[in-house]
């Protein structure tokens, strides 16, 4: 059993209606047809038979996690009897076009249908807007309907006026997926944050990888960064004090039996994992490899999440001493830097270095050596300066160590821009996009992971990416399109609140971008931008972001951002 929650009452219910009468019906056990009309157990199914001359049958199915009655209610609300199949297809199409139609792309490098970046981009937006998903079900229909939903945390049905979101693959999605949602689905962000806090109320912890219940899959408390991301982007429709209390527990309270369990990936029969190894981390500044699994990755993640917690604390009005303490702890990544090898390396409790093939979560020492998203200046200083770090990154990319199929690599190419080498960022970013994304059924280099793989491409093609997702900054890379027009929802500018203000169109222009990868100059609303940093608020307020592109490397932003 993964995680502490069992959810014994969890069930799926469905009701189906057929446009033609059937002549026989029954249930199955997966292998043979049984004669009865009711059955429980694994592989249970139902069947109906129609007369041989039947040529078309229209089937309407309503599903629910609450009850059969709610499944029937959902069917009547979502697929009423007076609606044709064609009507339903058109309704679904219009719902998606409301989102996809907000973006108009011009000027692409299309070598063939499989490599049309427009198709890849729109497919990516479709993917990224599916998760987290709304598990609540309307009682009456309409925007203001009271909703019901099943919670595995309480193993009961709840009634609420708010949506409840599930499917939180947060180790993956905190990196870029949630930033995409603040731009393209801002009306949902506050409810999502309230869902995180509701889970915290029920279980005592923010979720790590919640799928009906907590699964304890992957590591760390990256929900801290999801809350920080929303706050930094102006969302305030949730209890910020409660958010602070939740992340404070993540930062300062070890999980139950912390010194007894390894908390290895998918270890069965464990309590809520939270920050496993926090006992050692708070005492010595790193998670001990001889005490916990994936200790190197945990140390780096906990340092980043400490930074995220400090952001939430600032928005909650917490005393400066606590914020400073968290910021100091966010430098704990330095404790696992091996200066002799110039790699991050897991350590044992006595301070000795562990075998460097151990200690990592779905990655290796190459990938995790660059896994410091919140303090790139501090990381560069460990290498001996920006130039030395850039040379190490050259070896990393040229040696084939980058792995776009998994998330810890996603921010790494953008570190070049922060170090003062945006031309190198442009080269590797385009190589990665070309090798890992296409418009076929296998068009992603790795698991979509609930939108993160696509979110990387969405931002990257626009020309910027949220390297530090607990901040309000994006790092400039290289735009793929000559012109992108985006009708930003009003909620993106108003913390998720829908207003009567007219929608604003943001135009991102980059003439020649399909064949010219390098940036010669950048302007936002006509103002020159010398540093490869764009603020979230500046993007929302802008009407124009203008890239001047070049087919040869330029001197634009050719210095570390902290020297600008």
SSE diagram, text form:
Elements: E1 13-18, E2 24-28, E3 45-49, E4 59-64, H1 68-78, H2 85-100, E5 103-106, H3 117-128, E6 133-134, E7 137-138, E8 147-151, E9 156-160, E10 165-166, E11 168-169, H4 170-173, H5 177-184, H6 186-203, E12 209-211, E13 213-214, H7 223-232, H8 240-252, H9 278-284, H10 295-316, H11 320-329, E14 337-338, E15 343-344, H12 365-369, H13 376-383, H14 386-398, H15 412-419, H16 422-436, H17 452-462, E16 464-465, E17 473-476, E18 483-488, H18 490-493, E19 504-509, E20 518-524, E21 527-528, E22 533-535, H19 536-541, E23 544-550
Parallel strand pairs: 19-23
Antiparallel strand pairs: 1-4, 2-3, 5-18, 6-10, 7-8, 8-9, 11-12, 12-13, 14-15, 16-17, 17-22, 18-19, 20-21, 20-23
């Amino acid at each position: 059993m993964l995680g502490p929650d069992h959810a014994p009452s969890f069930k799926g219910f469905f009701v189906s209606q057929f446009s033609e009468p059937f002549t026989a019906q029954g249930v199955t056990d997966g292998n043979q047809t049984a004669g009865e009309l009711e059955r429980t157990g694994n592989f249970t199914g139902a069947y109906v038979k129609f007369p041989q001359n039947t040529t078309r049958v229209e089937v309407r199915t309503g599903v629910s996690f609450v009850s059969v009655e709610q499944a029937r209610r959902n069917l009547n609300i979502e697929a009423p009897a007076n609606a044709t199949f064609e009507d339903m297809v058109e309704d679904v199409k219009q719902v998606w076009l409301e989102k996809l139609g907000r973006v108009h792309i011009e000027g692409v490098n299309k070598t063939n249908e499989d490599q049309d970046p427009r198709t890849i981009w729109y497919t990516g937006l479709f993917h990224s807007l599916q998760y987290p998903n709304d598990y609540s079900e309307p009682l009456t229909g309409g925007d203001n309907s009271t909703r019901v939903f099943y919670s595995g945390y309480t193993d009961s049905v709840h009634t609420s006026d708010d949506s409840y979101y599930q499917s939180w693959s947060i180790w993956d999605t905190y990196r870029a997926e949630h930033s995409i949602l603040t731009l393209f689905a801002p009306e949902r962000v506050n409810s999502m944050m309230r869902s995180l806090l509701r889970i915290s109320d029920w279980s005592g912890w923010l979720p790590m990888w919640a799928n009906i219940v907590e699964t304890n899959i992957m590591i760390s408390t990256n929900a801290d960064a999801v809350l920080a991301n929303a706050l930094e982007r102006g969302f305030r429709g949730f209890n910020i004090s409660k958010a602070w209390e939740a992340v404070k527990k993540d930062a300062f309270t070890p999980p139950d039996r912390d010194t007894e369990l390894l908390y290895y990936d998918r270890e069965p029969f464990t309590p809520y994992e939270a920050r496993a190894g926090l006992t050692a981390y708070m005492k010595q500044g790193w998670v001990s490899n001889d005490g916990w699994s994936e200790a190197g990755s945990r140390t780096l993640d906990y340092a980043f999440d400490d930074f995220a917690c400090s952001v939430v604390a600032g928005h909650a009005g917490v005393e400066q001493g606590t914020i400073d303490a968290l910021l100091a702890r966010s430098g704990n990544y330095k404790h696992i830097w091996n200066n002799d090898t110039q790699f991050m390396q897991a350590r044992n409790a006595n301070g000795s270095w562990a075998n460097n093939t151990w200690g990592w979560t779905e990655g290796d020492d190459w990938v995790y050596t660059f896994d410091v998203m919140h303090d790139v200046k501090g990381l560069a200083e460990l290498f001996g300066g920006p130039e030395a770090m850039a040379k190490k990154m050259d070896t990393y990319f040229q040696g084939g160590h980058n792995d776009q199929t998994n998330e810890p690599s996603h921010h790494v190419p953008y570190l070049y821009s922060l170090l003062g080498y945006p031309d190198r960022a442009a080269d590797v970013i385009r190589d990665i996009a070309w090798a890992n994304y296409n418009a076929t059924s296998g068009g992603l280099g790795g698991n979509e992971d609930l939108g993160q793989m696509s979110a990387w491409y969405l931002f990257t093609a626009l020309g910027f990416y949220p390297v530090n997702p607990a901040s309000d900054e994006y790092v400039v890379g290289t735009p793929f399109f000559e012109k992108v027009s985006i009708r930003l929802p009003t909620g993106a500018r108003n913390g998720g609140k829908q207003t009567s203000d007219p929608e604003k169109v943001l135009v991102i222009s980059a003439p020649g971008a399909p064949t010219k990868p390098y940036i010669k100059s950048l302007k936002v609303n006509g103002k020159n931008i010398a540093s490869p940093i764009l603020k979230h608020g500046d993007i929302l307020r802008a009407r124009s972001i203008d890239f001047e592109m070049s087919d040869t490397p330029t001197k634009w932003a050719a210095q570390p951002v902290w020297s600008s």
